[in-house]
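User: Predict Ribosomal RNA large subunit methyltransferase H's structure from this.
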Amino acid sequence: MNITIISVGKIKEKYLRDAIEEYSKRLRRYCKLDIIELSDEKTPDNASEKEEIQIKEKEGEAILKVIKDNMFVVAMDLKGKMLSSEELSSYISDLGVRGESNIAFVIGGSLGISNEVLNRANYKLCFSKMTFPHQLFRVMLLEQVYRAYRIMKGEPYHK
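Assistant:
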């Protein structure tokens, strides 16, 4: 199975880059992993709603350019469905059984994901109603995908 993480924003902090590398290394046993890091647009202080929409649309265009036609797109969205780790594991496994072997998880920038990307998404997933920094969220997503594979394989990790 191919897992692609499409994420807006650069990871500047070494501890986050180290965590991403660790989970990427662990995941190599289970899937082919590709991380696509896109530049985020600068949001001015006190940006108007119109400016924020334009920024999200510009980031969305960049996201849509890297999404391939054969990808099953999972958008990380506060309005998405919340799953337990076991349910996420089952969901990823079921996608593979259905022949969806190219899964792309999309993490938007600080303003979220554009409507165009949400419309392209096959599924919308929410980890929590809380807001997380998108740099930290990349680590959280990788950890949960790793956990999902461990659960699928019946391997000890998930408690």
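The helical segments are 14-27, 49-66, 85-97, 115-120, 134-152.
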